[in-house]
Design goal:
The protein is about 40% helix and about 20% strand. The chain is α+β, with helices and mostly antiparallel strands. It has two domains: about 10-130, no CATH class; about 145-400, Phosphatase 2c, domain 1. The strands form three sheets. It has a six-stranded antiparallel sheet, with helices on one face. A five-stranded antiparallel sheet has the order 3-12-11-8-9.
């Protein structure tokens, strides 16, 4: 947890009022104290502002630490007495102003104690939130699992910094798997569901040979989570999650498998243009009981060129609205931008572009948590390239389907 110094400035003052690493939070109240005395000395007895010295501890309470405020609480009435003694022939308010300065110093010190405690509590909560964020959206090393990747998460609640969107890359016994998902709803309930799904994905993606088995494990985990929340009397027992599962199989560098579970279909972005995976997919996680009895959702086999990138977003991007209520045209904007600059298809540049254009489209006012994630194979390995046709045959757009 962050260390909080109480000697010269509180947590926020120590951060904002520093010069070369040293706190200067004491300078403003000291300057105010000196200014009040100088103005009082240089004005006539008809314009006596020495009693304004009671403001000094109040200013210190806002930006200094407890001990710093206490010093000014003592210094202010002491300065008042000394100034009155230097000018004995001018009008003197006497004891009432001195008592006012003393009481003001005590109240300012108490207010500073309350402020510093609140800031410490706030810093602690920020640390907890950051820990949760790093658990749900753990940092991914560059080139993890043989993939170039980039991702950004924007919370609709600027204070929360964490929500129900999630993504991850998991290496395993059968290749590298990727997940991007979005839990219905907001708040801690959505974070809890996202953490549960990610934990299951990290285990299942490592061990399971088939992508449909990973999807089945995630469905079971979501159902268990819903039952537990319902048993606890939580109000969000009907929660569900959309997700996209990707599989980059070993030894097949020219293809990628995908299972889309109620989520926006990923875009395949390359220098030659943008294409979308077919829109038909499985049901969202948590709604498996409504699925038809003819088996698990289809696995889409997608041919990938070496310079093509998978772009995955949550509905915070596609449902971002401008002032006229129009949705953000993600595919059209990406296609136009890549046509003008083919290098934009690289993951890092692609994510930065979508993030900037989404925020510009909605004027920085996000209505929902927003995730942008891009990934592609880091190296083109192997001599052969798959033809992208699964057991079910091609569909005319270069994307085949397999049924596990």
């Amino acid at each position: 947890m962050r260390a909080v110094s109480d000697g010269g400035a509180g947590p926020q003052g120590a951060t904002l009022l520093r010069v070369r690493g040293r706190s200067v939070a004491w300078v403003p109240p000291l300057l105010l104290l000196v200014a009040i005395v100088l103005v009082d000395f240089r004005t006539s007895s008809d314009f006596r502002i020495l009693s304004w010295i009671v403001l000094v501890p109040g200013i210190a309470a806002a930006i200094c630490g407890v001990w710093g405020t206490a010093v000014f609480a003592v210094l202010a009435p002491a300065t008042y007495v000394a100034a009155d003694a230097v000018l004995p022939h001018e009008y003197q308010a006497g004891l009432p102003d001195l008592v006012l300065a003393g009481i003001g110093g005590v109240l300012a010190t108490l207010a500073c104690v309350i402020r510093v405690r609140g800031e410490r509590r706030m810093l602690h909560m920020q640390d907890v939130t950051e820990t949760i964020r790093r658990t749900v959206l753990r940092p991914l090393p560059p080139g993890w699992g043989g993939l170039d990747h980039a991702g950004v998460y924007l919370s609709a609640d600027s204070e929360a910094r964490v929500g129900g969107d999630f993504y991850d890359i998991q290496t395993g016994l059968h290749g590298t798997r990727v997940i991007v998902g979005d839990v219905q709803g907001k708040g801690l309930g959505a974070v809890e569901a996202a953490a549960a799904l990610l934990g299951t994905f990290r285990e299942a993606a490592y061990h399971e040979a088939d992508l449909t088995a990973v999807a089945a494990r995630l469905e079971v985990r979501m159902q268990r989570h819903i039952r537990m929340r319902t048993a606890l009397g939580r109000e969000d027992g009907d929660r569900f999650a959309t997700a996209v599962l990707l599989d980059f199989p070993e030894g097949q560098p020219g293809v990628m498998d995908a299972v889309v579970l109620g989520h926006d279909s990923p875009l395949v972005v390359g220098p030659d243009g943008v294409r979308s995976l077919p829109p038909d997919h499985g049901l969202p996680l948590g709604l498996g009981e409504l699925a038809p009895a003819d088996g698990p959702p289809p696995v889409l086999r997608v041919p990938l060129a070496p310079d093509e990138t998978l772009l995955l977003t949550t509905d915070g991007v596609t449902e971002a609205r401008d002032g006229a209520g129009a949705f953000y045209p993600l595919a059209a904007e990406v296609a136009a931008a890549v046509a003008a600059d083919p290098g934009l298809a690289r993951p890092a540049r692609l994510v930065a572009f979508v993030r900037e254009r989404t925020l510009r489209h909605c004027g920085g006012r996000l209505a929902d948590d927003t995730t942008v994630f891009a990934v592609r194979r880091r190296a083109w390995v192997g001599k052969g390239v798959g033809n992208g046709v699964g057991k079910g045959g091609g569909n005319g757009d270069g994307i085949g389907r397999t049924q596990s």
